[in-house]
Write a structure and sequence with these properties.
Blueprint: E1 4-9, H1 15-27, H2 40-47, H3 63-74, E2 79-83, E3 88-90, E4 93-95, E5 101-108, H4 111-122, H5 126-134, E6 139-142, E7 147-150, H6 154-162, E8 168-172, H7 173-178, H8 180-191, H9 199-205, H10 208-218, H11 248-253, H12 255-260
Parallel strand pairs: 1-2, 1-5, 5-8
Antiparallel strand pairs: 3-4, 6-7
Helix pairs in contact: 4-5
């Protein structure tokens, strides 16, 4: 049954922020440590024992069975699942599985700002973060659980999801910042859902500042040990404060895709 809706993005593009918006709208839940929009990797971790995975790349062997289980358990209901995986054939396995996929929510953010947030989150210098965004074989993994996500380059990731033939809504992080009401209403219309909370209250309670304040008070389980806060800086155009030379590899290599989103 086609009942999985993927909430997809390159890391540090606003995925968790939108998860909070959807969790509040659908379940009246604002506990950032108990977001009801789960990630594929967390589901795999809970469904299957850790010792079955010897290497990070082996997680791909669980993608199809996990999607089948998610779809079966959801029944006639749609279920929203977070992922940072690229869309495509990975190690001989197609991801996501179109047999179970209904729709896509894709969030895109200026890669220059992504690189800054990426460097802070993973505790690496900015030049290394830029190199990661350019790397076609880039992936991230959880050493403790041997769970990985295949990213590829920022451009490959964005194009793989936005050019897919599955019904989709593409949301720019920057638009969500500037005009959250319009974007959230469009999102709910696309998902055909009636939120349990007013859009105004959703915007108020899930503002980046409010989420940051909550993290400061109670912590956030998904925060990296290499940075002080997960909700570190929700502003756009952070890159302007840096030397533009840092981002030249990004603007040169991703020029076509960045132009299509009016980033340059």
């Amino acid at each position: 049954m086609k009942n999985i809706i993927w909430l997809a993005s390159y890391p540090k593009s606003g995925n968790t922020w939108l998860r909070a918006v959807l969790s509040f709208a659908l379940y009246n839940n604002l506990d950032i440590n108990k977001l009801r929009i789960n990630s594929l990797n967390n589901i795999i971790k809970n469904l299957y024992p850790n010792h079955d995975r010897k290497e990070p790349g082996e997680v791909k062997n669980y993608w199809d069975i996990a999607q089948q289980t998610i779809s079966k358990n959801a029944g006639s209901n749609n279920v929203i699942i977070k992922t940072h995986n690229i869309f495509g054939n990975i190690g001989g396995i197609n991801f996501p599985n179109k047999e179970f996929t209904s729709k896509i929510i894709y969030i895109v953010r200026d890669p220059r700002d992504v690189s800054i947030s990426y460097s802070q989150h993973f505790g690496i210098d900015l030049n290394t973060a830029v190199e990661r965004l350019l790397k076609k074989t880039n992936f991230i993994f959880d050493n403790e659980n041997n769970l990985g996500e295949v990213l590829s380059s920022w451009q490959n990731h964005v194009n793989s999801w936005t050019n897919s033939d599955i019904p989709k809504i593409i949301i720019k992080f920057e638009d969500l910042l500037v005009d959250p009401k319009s974007i959230i209403i469009k999102l709910f219309h696309f998902l055909k859902i009636k939120p349990r909370i007013s859009v105004g209250k959703i915007i108020e309670k899930t503002s980046f500042k409010n989420l940051q304040d909550k993290e400061k008070k109670i912590g956030f389980a998904e925060a990296s040990s290499k940075t002080s806060l997960f909700f570190r800086n929700g502003n756009k155009d952070q890159w302007i404060k840096y030397d533009k030379k840092n981002f030249k590899p990004i603007t040169v290599n991703f020029r076509k895709t960045m132009k299509s989103f009016n980033y340059i």
